[in-house]
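Figure 6 in text form: structure in, sequence out.
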């Protein structure tokens, strides 16, 4: 560890919980990947942080594009609000990438990761749950069935 690295062993990274399951398999799998990318970004060392941020950006772009396609294909009524949240996330990622490229402290990327870990549960509970329900109704005629084994949510970082 160099003198500028934070002790990443003391960080509690975002972890998957069945509480995040929404019952639309493709979305649930993408959300598992989201959690893994955020955790990798939260725990990355200074030398690896830009790479982890780029990994997250690639994931988020694909993730959000998939959800956009599902919304467009089924005329999801709340699509605009959903898309605006995604755009705000991608904008923040691009701003942090620019800051890192200009020599900013790598902590700015970890702060973004912590913000994403705090943002995601609410987004999933409301926006993505509504989309999952909508997709299941269109595809199967009813609400998704979700079986959760471990529904205890990880406490938010700092709270």
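Output sequence:
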């Amino acid at each position: 560890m160099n003198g500028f690295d934070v002790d990443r062993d003391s960080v509690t990274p975002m972890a998957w919980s069945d509480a995040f399951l929404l019952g639309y398999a493709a979305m649930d799998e993408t959300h598992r990947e989201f959690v893994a990318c955020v955790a990798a970004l939260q725990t990355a060392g200074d030398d690896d942080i830009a790479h982890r941020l780029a990994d997250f950006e690639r994931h988020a772009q694909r993730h959000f594009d998939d959800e956009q396609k599902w919304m467009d294909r089924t005329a999801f009524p709340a699509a605009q609000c959903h898309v605006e949240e995604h755009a705000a996330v991608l904008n923040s990622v691009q701003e942090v990438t620019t800051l890192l490229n200009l020599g900013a402290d790598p902590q700015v990327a970890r702060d973004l990761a912590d913000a994403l870990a705090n943002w995601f549960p609410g987004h999933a509970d409301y926006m993505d749950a509504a989309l999952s329900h909508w997709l299941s109704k269109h595809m199967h005629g009813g609400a998704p069935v979700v079986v959760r084994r471990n529904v205890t949510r990880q406490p938010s970082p700092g709270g």
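Caption detail: The radius of gyration is 17 Å.
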